[in-house]
Write a structure and sequence with these properties.
6-stranded mixed sheet, single chain, binds pyridoxal-5'-phosphate, 21 helices, alpha/beta, Rossmann fold, about 475 residues
Length: about 475
């Protein structure tokens, strides 16, 4: 292999970083996000060879492209140990609904949502690098639901890692809350912030932007802004596309989107040579991205709670990475737009940039009522129960087809991002019965909860954290 890949910040303040640097910090010191200096890519011939790899081996092949030499030789072992703990041998099995319409089940990890695929991997990478550097870190994260449980599950009670997860008080589902608040111990905690998800995210971001605080406690981010979390998500796009005909055929993916992390991983797969014809970006009623892709205007409004709470977001942090590419990786242009956004909650793409974005993405917004109807329809037609987020992805496909936005006769894979039992009340509302609860979730629901409720006030939060961190 050539020299190890180097990383750069979208805002131009940091360059030439190693994978280990970007792994441990997460958010760049200039407020930007880390990106590889260029995209590794696979030839057609190489894709044909990769097509028949099992999930762990495929993961290794892809993930090795992005790490430093020190980790490269450990990747095979990590891939095997992470994905052998999942409850399905395929890891990300494909379910055929009908000709050219597939679901990819991404809920076979411990917390039953796709976040596990990356988070379990991330914790192993952290372990390796921290051992090597003999360091201790403090992980801070904001969650709209599923990230928090996946992170706590993956990083709980580790000797050299403290983890504190903030979730919006009373705005996550009961199951999501249980999955977080039943994991606790010294240096492992969830905190309910009296705010919405964007408030949680802003709070965590401002603690990271406080360089003194950040350095003193070696803060580390595991939100989807952490570059290393995106990498394992790239894997299932390859895996799924191969199952339905790639690389010989082009494939379309539909992705229910919030923070733009999951769908960005799909776009990276495309940049790496996977023949993805289009990525469909499904939004719920919080449709900031749909508006952007349709008219080029990024305008933040208030978050309205919906039936797909993990997507109740108005600031899609990872979009900055795609924006960086749209602006031909020019940090000055990026800073100009992001400063505008921070000051005025607004920026606008020009016609050429919008056209470039439309080459890759189509976007649709799905109402709560459409979510309920889609769950019902899929159950009636295919005897399959989808969760409300997955319903957004499926409905977006139907809308794209109605508007004749997709090339015909290509296989379409809709990502099934969570198990329906995580959202029992919504399923009941749609189907008038409750979904079956897998045993690993049933066990969690019986455990005792423990969490702290705090006002959305940065100095209160900091004081609390300093008190709770292990020295
Ligand atoms: C996190 C999550 C999403 C949104 O994914 P992003 O990477 O934030 O765009 C959608 N559905 C479910 C079930 C999730 O947990």
């Amino acid at each position: 292999m050539a020299d190890s890949i180097k990383y750069t910040s979208t805002r131009g303040g940091e360059q030439n970083l190693s994978f280990d640097d970007v792994l441990l910090t997460g958010l760049a010191r200039d407020g930007g996000l880390y990106m590889p200096e260029s995209w590794p890519s696979f030839s057609y011939k190489k894709l044909l060879q990769m097509k028949n790899l099992d999930y762990p081996n495929l993961a290794s092949e892809i993930i090795k492209q992005f790490v430093g030499k020190n980790l490269e030789k450990k990747i095979d072992f990590i891939s095997k140990s992470v994905y052998s703990s999942f409850d399905n041998e395929e890891v990300a099995p494909i379910v055929k609904l009908k000709e050219n319409l597939y679901l990819m089940e991404l809920f076979h990890g411990p917390t039953l949502a796709f976040k596990d695929y990356a988070m379990m991997y991330l914790s192993k990478l952290f372990d390796e690098v921290l051992k090597e550097k003999k360091k201790k870190i403090v992980i801070l994260g904001a969650t709209s639901g599923d990230t928090g449980s996946a992170a706590l599950q993956a990083f709980q009670l580790k000797k050299n890692i403290d983890i504190f997860i903030f979730f919006p008080h009373k705005r996550v589902s009961n199951v999501q809350k249980k999955q977080m608040t039943t994991i606790y111990g010294p240096g492992t905690e969830s905190i309910a912030l009296k705010s919405d998800f964007d408030g949680c995210q802003t709070l965590v971001k401002s603690m990271f932007n406080d360089i003194e605080f950040r350095d003193e406690f070696s803060l580390s981010a595991i939100n989807s802004i952490n570059w290393a979390r995106l990498i394992p998500q790239i894997v299932y796009y390859f895996y799924g596309a191969f199952r339905v005909g790639a690389p010989e055929k082009e494939v379309i993916f539909s992705v229910p989107t919030g923070n733009f992390g999951n769908i960005l991983a799909g776009w990276i797969a495309l940049k790496m040579g996977l023949p993805i014809r289009k990525l469909i970006c499904g939004s719920n009623r919080n449709d900031v991205l749909t508006r952007l892709f349709n008219n080029g205007i990024m305008k933040k409004t208030d978050v309205i709670p919906s039936l797909s709470p993990s997507m109740d977001i108005q600031v899609s942090s990872n979009f900055e990475r795609f924006l960086f590419e749209l602006l031909d990786r020019n940090p000055d242009k990026l800073n100009f737009l992001m400063n505008n956004f921070e000051d005025n909650n607004y920026y606008e793409l020009d016609k050429q940039q919008l056209e470039k974005a439309s080459k890759y993405f189509e976007s649709f917004s799905v109402s709560d009522n459409e979510i309920l109807q889609t769950i019902k329809y899929i159950h009636k037609e295919y005897k399959y129960i989808i969760d409300p987020h997955t319903a957004v992805g499926i409905k977006s496909i139907f809308l794209a087809q109605q508007e004749k936005k997709l090339k015909n006769n290509l296989p379409i894979i809709s990502l099934a991002c969570a198990h329906p039992s995580k959202f029992p009340n919504t399923i009941f509302k749609s189907l008038t019965f409750y979904p079956e609860i897998p045993q690993r979730l049933g066990d969690v629901l019986k455990k005792e909860e423990k969490f702290k409720i705090i006002d959305n006030n940065i100095s209160k939060v900091k004081n609390y954290l300093i008190n709770q961190m292990r020295k």
